[in-house]
Amino acid sequence: MVFSLLTKIFGSSNDRAIKKIQPIVETINSLEPDFQQLEDLELTKKTAEFQQRHQGGESLDTLLPEAFALVREASWRKLNMRHFDVQLIGGIALHQGIIAEMKTGEGKTLMSTLPAYLNALSGKGVHVVTVNDYLAKRDAEWMAQIYNFLGLEVGVVVHDMDDQERKKAYNADITYGTNNEFGFDYLRDNMKFDRESLAQRELNFAIVDEVDSILIDEARTPLIISGPAEKSTHLYQQSNTIIPAFKKEEDYTIDEEAKSVMLTEAGIAKGEKLLGVDNIYDPANIEILHHLNQALKAHTLFKRDVDYIVKNDEVVIVDEFTGRLMAGRRYSEGLHQALEAKEKVKIANENQTLASITFQNYFRMYDKLSGMTGTAETEAAEFKKIYDLDVLVIPTHRPMIRKDFPDLIYKTQKEKYNAAIQEIITLHRKGQPVLVGTISIDVSEDLSKKLKKMGVKHTVLNAKHHQAEAEIVANAGQKGAVTISTNMAGRGTDIVLGEGVKELGGLHILGTSRHESRRIDNQLRGRSGRQGDEGSSRFYLSLEDDLLRIFGGDRITAIMDRLGIDEGEPIEHKLISRAIENAQSKVEGHNFEIRKQLIEYDDVMNQQREVIYRQRRQALKEGDLKSEIIEMIEEKAMDIVHRFQDDKLPLEEWDWEGISDAVKRQFDFTIDVETLKTETDNKENASQHIADHAMALYAAKEALIGEEDTRQLERYIMLQTVDTLWKEHLLNMDHLKEGIGLRSYAQQNPLIIYKKEGYEMFQGLIDRIREETLAILFRIQIAPSAEAPVMKKPQNDNLILSGSDNSLPRQPVKRSSAKIGRNDPCHCGSGKKYKKCCGA
């Protein structure tokens, strides 16, 4: 009450933020007449002028009013579209690194041209991130008319491009692409052996469209580049065959709120009997237990035509947030194979991760990040906590007049769908277009069958029927249109009303269920009432819906029973709608905690990833690693002496045999122990003597091979060693993470233990990289060309890119086929041939 009164007096924080921006908008408007008087060529020349002023020390903030006024005039001349004041407000917010919440149809795409142009003046590049390839191409081509007119280059990154095309696109002033493409290109660049093939520049400024979808909904889905691991699929089939024998409650329990399933004591005993093992929790049987758990998940928690579909004898994931197929993406940890076994399709081999990153950590690497969407305010706390991003709700250009009716709640799903169908028929006869939102493919198809029986002409838009998506969306606002859709119609679609429809009440949104997230419901509602159009919305629910049943059904059921609601009669009350929103808020809070925990764990991995990738970049860009190699030689010499000497013992009693063996293993030469003893009086002298001898041998080898070829060889071997050991480290970290939860039983904080042990493992990784790099370099010898076959050039391997939507790139990643083992030939790329002897 008091808070509401204070808000009325002083305005909300959002109102105050907009009021602070308003003077800048007025300055831009005051400049408009000056820019209107300029000829086209004079407008174009302004870009070079702004760039020179910025290079001379003038800030982008100072240039903003003129730059925005210039873009507005260019847009009017090239597109016949003039930025509204609310778009100027949104553009300023984006430039300031703020998320702009702007309602559907208010012109987010045009708004983004303002900060994109301004920040491109720095010459460091701007990335505009969209949710699919179609939107990336469309927006790039559409807005390029403005940018090109003003003398800027525009690039677009889509999945069917080679390295050179990608590099050209990233070198443009402004680059459009999907979140997947930007993330995968970052990972690809950190797997390359040639600096000329690096595609991306430094990550400067990103404007993320549908920012809540990418940074929140998809935050738990990492981008993964993986290669096939040689594992048998027998256990998946064996585990799958025994699952039908398990009974709910008796053998396993399901926690629907946490979306988890757990074996009971009886279930464990049954599993041991059917699989023929004495103790399934014995460490030797841990893999069998893992397969059993995944098979149980596949059968109990994942539903066909809801979570996935079977298409062309493949299990294809359906994105729960967009309703789209996620071709090319696979569930991790063997779950996808368990689903393949369940559906009796070919079971693919498991994959080994070669590189991965979450969207959370990828986008946090940009120097400046901003975003835009129609729905962000409900997640403002998470945006601030995870990304340090504020949310600004931008006013609409025209007042919103859509009528959002309270939910109608029925006791059963049968009553709910019957009532919804009657509503559709009534509106269809009236001629008012209806967009029917469903939460899954099977519900959309079941509803379609019922409407066909009733003789109602309609179209269906879901992941199975998406070929005519553009046409279906274009016609959804026409008189008498009935469109049944999954969440596919929720984002990136702008439904324009046909002639005479406004008079009928505009587009009516009929939701058949509430989603776990209020934002998804708001996205669906947002298809109606664009730019001040007429429109309406209502959701039909039942007490049997998952959301109500799991998170609030008892309370609502009690109210309905108390009111004596008859069959087929709904309850419509704002208190009930509020109770449902509270249930959604509870789920959102739960999901936020999961994402927060995920990033806490992933931050450990991210710090390690940044160190490794920074070393790779340094090796690629600098080319000359000689000083690093010398430093590594000196460090390893010191390590060897330190390991086998004892300050408490006289020098003669040190473990000289151990020192000699270690030097032989590391540097491939035999040290003269007696000489070393006589010339040494402390451990520093001893390690320096070993290092000097090693560097003398290395210098002789360099003289034999040639300085330029040695530098190439050092770079190649270090990169190859880093990649091989990093791949093993990723697997070890995954295993550590899987087992870390058990530490909580010992009253230990799993995250602290994960950080501590992960750090120790990483230190071990760094040591092994140095040891193996030196061991290989010191064993390389010149060999006759007949004995040392030329190593193959980098070729395409069948690697798998796993991401988040159906615009995934599925082309192979270019990787070297070289594997430098103990006796393998290696080739530095110079045309000469080398061979590595086996050493000690």
UniProtKB/TrEMBL annotation:
Cofactors (names): Zn(2+)
Cellular component per GO, a single term: cell envelope Sec protein transport complex
Keywords assigned: ATP-binding, Cell inner membrane, Cell membrane, Cytoplasm, Membrane, Metal-binding, Nucleotide-binding, Protein transport, Translocase, Translocation, Transport, Zinc
Binding positions for ATP per the UniProt entry: Q87, G105, E106, G107, K108, T109, D494
Location of the protein in the cell: Cell membrane; Cytoplasm
Start and end residues of each SecA family profile domain: 3-572
Coiled-coil segments: none
Segments of skewed composition (Polar residues): 799-809
GO MF, one example: protein-exporting ATPase activity
GO biological process, one term: protein transport by the Sec complex
Any Pfam family matching the protein: SecA_SW
Limits of the Helicase ATP-binding domain: 89-247
Membrane topology, from the record: Peripheral membrane protein
Spans annotated as Disordered: 799-820
Statement: the UniProt record of this protein carries the keyword Glycoprotein: no
Listed SUPFAM superfamilies: Helical scaffold and wing domains of SecA (SSF81886), P-loop containing nucleoside triphosphate hydrolases (SSF52540), Pre-protein crosslinking domain of SecA (SSF81767)
Helicase C-terminal domain ranges (all copies): 404-588
Family matches, as NCBIfam families: PRK09200.1, PRK12904.1, secA
Quaternary structure, from the entry: Monomer and homodimer. Part of the essential Sec protein translocation apparatus which comprises SecA, SecYEG and auxiliary proteins SecDF. Other proteins may also be involved.
Function: Part of the Sec protein translocase complex. Interacts with the SecYEG preprotein conducting channel. Has a central role in coupling the hydrolysis of ATP to the transfer of proteins into and across the cell membrane, serving as an ATP-driven molecular motor driving the stepwise translocation of polypeptide chains across the membrane.
Entry's family note: Belongs to the SecA family.
Protein name: Protein translocase subunit SecA
Taxonomic lineage: Bacteria, Pseudomonadati, Thermodesulfobacteriota, Desulfobacteria, Desulfobacterales
Gene this protein is translated from: secA
